Each structure stands twice: as structure tokens, then as C-alpha cells.
């Protein structure tokens, strides 16, 4: 769907102000009108929450409003204090009642989210290990017109399970007052409670359902009845992620000639400080002693020149090119304000969706960066040398930043961000490589009105030559 | 035939050079950079490992192996991965000039077994040659490969040479699908040239029985170290094991998105635009009067075709949107369907391009597929950006795509398996709808001119592509305009 395209013929260019609700996947094709309910299935410590959070983050980033609903949290709110595994015993009537209530409460919130809050996908994160529970959910979905897609994680590798417990369970509110041994022992008994009643998705009995069964952390997958585009994308994503420890290094090119002159875009080369940075980056990489590091750049001179100084093979991605500023390419902000004050204000009003005339928007960028993200997920250690807007988009994906925050993320020159996946998120280390550079970050000014005076428009423009 | 989308070092240098030229244009003040030392590889999908991959089809006859092989090869070649199909049946037909009957395939037919084993060996040898001498990246070994012994042979061969192996097994027990397959592609095979339908069908079913006796499907337990995808009943279920790398991941994604439900894809350009009339390329102009007439004619045509659940797609540019508007049905806009960005040459006539950038103009004629307009795109870039469109077209059923000349050439090349050299010269005239209907192993094309005159925008490759050519030589093939 698109709301409209506004043409102002009396201006000398098209004001392509798209208020498209179309998702960055291209058209709102098979979103159809049906929201999707993703239902996690699996014993505790099989990575369900890890998958839920990651999938939610990915879908939101590509523009599909998604939210996860973790039944464990509902249970914690209901119970206040977790005593021990006995709560989960299958013969604990009281416990079963509470757990069932929590599940229904969560489903209620799912309905609220999908029907009334504009949600497109809801991820129902719970064990859902019995056929009976899954039937309840399927009926609920049918009643409300939601499509259902199951994601089951099956894993019998004791090392993986132990690692999971250590990484995410010990830090859970449930075990706040326990020592490590006690917590692990209790958790293992908790898993036992589920094991006896666990009915995995069955190739025969469940052949009408849509699902993916992930076995042994992605060694093997069983995919059944993928119904539409979003399910196909989810399957592709899930089949590309892994949990092998690694780090992703994000940085911009070294300072460029146009940077120093306060001009945006273009395809200029590095300044002498920029070249110094490239050398420092080379040393930094060496010191870090990174195993099998892949280096990626865009196809613009300044990133290529930066990579050249590393003296290692690198790969160029056109998709990593800086945002195309269209008619504003190579202008200073002062010039944009002078020649296109209306555009300048519109951009401040909605920096994520605003598209430069004959150029791109951040939203367009996210779409073109999606294959980069997919490949980053497949890879292990990677250094991405890119550009300000591009880096903001990539960072927003890893740090789960909203569309509102994304265009204002701080990505200064000559600073490497080292991202290391940990638990359910990403650890970030910011390393400034000690080579001075101009500041290129322009904050959102207070006055974004189209009739604002020039000084107010230029209030937040960083200093330049 | 197998030289498709090759990305040689020479080409990398060409791209590098274009990049330099483009940069120089942008900043005449900037010092001339020596980018000849660029170590980086200028590939979009530069993630194909260095090891070639052998895709090994597995399955009883009439399970769609050849259909999948050809389709997969077409897709991979289109995205720039050199791929070739090695069909064992063809080797067998060359070895045994005349096919008598199913008895050849009996598992106790020693003589035939020897011949078949030889054929397999020859095919593997040819695969080796394809990788080492023809810059092949993926080879699809299209045969039944139904015994563990045969698959073991292939695995040893691959291991010895350092090739990766990915199995694609098609399992189907739906008798209707199998019969449908036999009708569509087996009856017309050279094997059954002189038989009537009944005889052919009967013989083929007996042939399948021969294989069934020794068929050992990929086993979840015994074959857990192999990389494979098992496709059940034309895609209702998949089992995917040990995907090793990017290309295998792409192959799996592709295979999981294709279907065999009958449908048609309609490709058309926008109606004639104002810039078309002026002989100017690119831009974002609206429809001319004749263009608007075409839009109405297109609406009438679509109605007359009575297409079930037709989806309509356009680009984000005015001329396609205006064309779709006339249809009076919902449509979806894809930025990826926008026309090729001609960068510095946007909205110029060919005469002006020759006047201002004669060298660029010549370089483009020398390699139209890979040539990138300064600050613009190449056809190769477009294929990359159109890949999600193709993937979604595969998922969909009946679709009408209203797009642009270069875009339509790229899409058409995918469906009709055209090479990178042919692609930029495919004829996609205005006011003509191409109706593509998958049939057997390929695509039937119907070209429907909707009877509204339009300017010709097709410029053939001129005989003289030298950078020092005279202006008249450069402009020899420019179509007429206002």
C-alpha cells in the first residue's frame, strides 16, 4: 500500500515524499492482510528465546512490525518469587493452572498487538511442548485470522545445553539468590519435568502444519509447508544464523576531502589524516590477531583506499555505498538550506523515511543492506569499512535500534566499533584510533518547521572548513 | 553455452577502470589516483568460495530432477555463477545410439550396467574439465544416482579434486504428479520417437520399476555427514542437512521458493513517455498521449485475458505508475524495478552522449553488460538488484510486471536463459506485452502488440565500437526521435 505521492509542479524538482506503508521487503506483497503468529517449540535451554529475540530484531529492522511474548516473563509477574523446579512438575496442579493462565494472558496480548496495535508478526516464546498446548494456540489463531508458523528447536548435545544454561539461565531473575551449582542442578531438574510430556512436531501427525524444525543448532532442518513470503524469509534467515563465537568490526572510511569541507556524499579520496587512520587501522587489526578476518568495503574510493592500507584481500560490495543524496550530492548543509530549504526541513521531520530527490532514504538503505546483513550472519569474523549512514543502518540492526533512533546514531570517523554477540544481545566496544578527524554528525535541530529561519535550520551543523 | 556471466580478471580490471574514469569525472581537481593496485574483487556476490561445487541430483525417474537441474542452472547463471548441467541420459543416448526398451535398465543387465557406468565416468571427467578449463563454478550432475555405491563414486571423485558436493534429492509418491511429468517431458524424449503414447507410458513405468529395486534414498542417519536437501512431493516438505556455504544456502533458498503450479507472467514496459519521444534516456517523465492510450489498451487486454488473482507490479517511476493506474486494480511498487540509472547521462540523447562523452559511449558498446555509467549502473548491477524480484516472481502465480526497457531485458534473460552478451540487446519494444508460460523445461513466449503506435527505443550494437570511431559510426544505430 502507499498513501500517496505529492508532486509540487511549481518547484523545479519532484518532491518525492513517500509515506509508504510498504515494507522494505519490496511490496507489501504477501504480508497480505493476515498477521503471522510464530510459535516456538522446544525443551528449556534449546535456544528458543535466543531465536525469538534475534528473529524479532531482524523482522523489525527490515520493516515488519514484530514483537515477542515470553511466557516465562508472564509467569514471573504472576508468581513474584520462584522457589524451585517443583513448580514445573507435571503433577503440580496449582502450577499447571498458573502456567496455563499465563499462556492465555500472553495470547491475549498477542491478539491486542496484532489486531489493534498494528503488529504484523508476534513471536510466542514458550516451550509449547505438548500437542494439546499447540492445538489451543492453533485454534486461537484460526479464530483471529492469524497464520501460524512453528519454529521447533531440537538439541541433544549436552555441551550446547550446558553452555546455554551458563550463558542465559544463571543470570535469570529466577536464580538471583542461588549459586552456580544450585542453579544448574535446579534447571536440569526443570528440564526433566518437561521431557516426559514432550511431543515433538511429527512428520506424520503434523504434516498439515507450517513449521521449521531446527536440529542440532542448525546442522539439519526440516521445513514443512511454507505458506507465504514472510515464512519463506523467516526460514531463510533461520537457516543462515549461527552461534559460533565471532566479532564484527564496523568502521567508516578514513576522513575524506569532502568530509573536511563539510560536503555530503560524493566520491572523494582520503585526506592525510584519513590515510593515517588507514595505517592505524592496519596496526589495530594486526594487534587484534583475528582468526580468518574477512574485510569488506563499498565501491567508493574512500573505503577502498582505507582497505588498501591493510594489505589484505578485501571484497567490495556496491550495497555498502553511502546513501545517495540525489540532487544534494556534494553540497554543504548550508547550501542545501539555501537551495532546498523545504527539503531540508522535511528531512528533519522524518529523517528515516525522507528520500532525497533523485536519491535515497534510510529506509531504502536498509532494504539494500539486507543481503549484507544476511551474509554477515553467515560469516564469522568480519571488518566492514563503510560510510556514516550505512554504518548507522548496520548498527541499528545489531543493537536493535528503532527507525527513529537509527538516523541519529553516532558513528564518528576514525572509530572502530567491535560487536560481539553475547547472551541475547551484542556487546559493543568503541575504539578510537587516536587520529583526529572532523565531526560529521548533525543532530536533529529543535525547529523542524518548514518555515523556520535559516539560523535555526543550521543550528546543529558541525564545524568545517 | 557454458560461458555464461564469466567474471574473469580482465573484467575485474575493466570495472576498476570504469570506476576510476567515473571518479575522475567527478573531481577534475582531485589527483589522479593509481587504482591499478586494487586488490579487491569487484564482485557483488563475491562470496563464492574458491572450491567448485558439484550438485548431485538424486531420485527415481520422473521426479523432476532435470526440471530442477535446468531451472537451477538458469538461475545460477543469471546471477553470475557459471553453471552447467551434465545429463547422464544424454551421455547414454550418445553411447547407445538406439533405445530399444526398458530392459536396458534392468539391474541384472550386465552389458548395460557397464555402459552406464562408463557414461557416468565420462560425465565426471567432463565436469572436471568444465571446472579447470572453462571457469565453471557449479556443475549439476543430473542422473538418478539412486544407489549409495554411485553416490560414493561421486563423493570420492569430488574429494580427490577438492570439489564440494551438495545433493538434491526429489522424493515423490504422488502418482498424478509422476504421470503428469511423464506426459510433459518423457513422451517427447528421443527414446520414444517411434512409439505411440500408450507404449511409451507403459515402457517408462517399467523403467521406473527397474530403479525402484535398488533405490536407496539419502538416509538421515547414515548420510548425516553429507550436505543435501531432500524435497518431498514437489515442495510441501524439505529436509536440509549441513549447508556448507553461501552458494548452497542460496540454492536451498531458491529451491524452496519455486513451484510447479501453472501460471503466466506478463512483462510489459510503461506506455510511451515524453522523454521516449525526445529520444532521451532515463529520467522520470510522464506518459505521452499515445502512452496513455496504451495504458487503456493494456487494461482492456488484461480484462480480456480473465486472469485469476493477477498481481500487478510497477517501479517507483511515474511512467509505470501512470500505466498501472489505468488498469483500475491494486498494484504494488518495487524500487528494484526502477530503470537503469544512467548516472551522468541521465536524460541525454545518444547524440548528446556522443558529443559530451564519446569514450564512454564507445566503452559501453564494447561491453554493454558490464559497462557502468559514471555515477550510474550497469546491466550487471541491475541483475543483482532484480534478484529479489525474480525470487518473488518464482513464489507468485499470475503476475503482470510493468517496468522499463533495461529492466525487462534482465527479467526476460532470466526466463529465457539468455547470456550476458545477448541480454542488453534483447528486443523489448514499447506497447508490447510478453506473456511467459512455463512449459516442460522452459518457457513459452507470446508477444502481443496492443496496436498503439510508439517510438522505437532499441539501439543495436554498431559495427564500429572503437574509441576513436567517427561520430557517424557511433550514431549509426540510434533510433529516430523528435
UniProtKB/TrEMBL annotation, chain A:
Example GO biological process: fructose 2,6-bisphosphate metabolic process
PROSITE patterns: PG_MUTASE
Keywords, comma-separated and alphabetical: ATP-binding, Hydrolase, Kinase, Multifunctional enzyme, Nucleotide-binding, Phosphoprotein, Transferase
Pfam families the UniProt entry points to: 6PF2K (PF01591), His_Phos_1 (PF00300)
Segments passing through the bilayer: none
Domain 6-phosphofructo-2-kinase: 31-245
Any GO MF annotation of the entry: ATP binding
Active site: 253 (tele-phosphohistidine intermediate), 322 (proton donor/acceptor)
Amino acids binding substrate: 252-259, 302
Domain of life from the UniProt record: Eukaryota
InterPro entries cross-referenced by the UniProt entry: 6Pfruct_kin, 6Phosfructo_kin, His_Pase_superF_clade-1, His_PPase_superfam, P-loop_NTPase, PG/BPGM_mutase_AS
Protein's UniProt name: 6-phosphofructo-2-kinase domain-containing protein
Taxonomic classification: Eukaryota, Metazoa, Chordata, Craniata, Vertebrata
From TrEMBL, chain B:
Annotated GO biological process: fructose 2,6-bisphosphate metabolic process; fructose metabolic process
Residues engaged in binding substrate: 269-276, 319
Single Gene Ontology MF annotation: fructose-2,6-bisphosphate 2-phosphatase activity
Active site (catalytic residues): 270, 339
One cellular-component annotation, GO: 6-phosphofructo-2-kinase/fructose-2,6-biphosphatase complex
Keyword annotations from UniProtKB, A to Z: ATP-binding, Hydrolase, Kinase, Multifunctional enzyme, Nucleotide-binding, Phosphoprotein, Transferase
Taxonomy, superkingdom: Eukaryota
PROSITE patterns, A to Z: PG_MUTASE
Gene3D superfamilies xrefs: P-loop containing nucleotide triphosphate hydrolases, Phosphoglycerate mutase-like
Residue ranges annotated for the 6-phosphofructo-2-kinase domain, each copy included: 46-262
Subunit structure as annotated in this protein's UniProt entry: Homodimer.
Function: Synthesis and degradation of fructose 2,6-bisphosphate.
UniProt name for this protein: 6-phosphofructo-2-kinase domain-containing protein
Primary gene name: LOC114783493
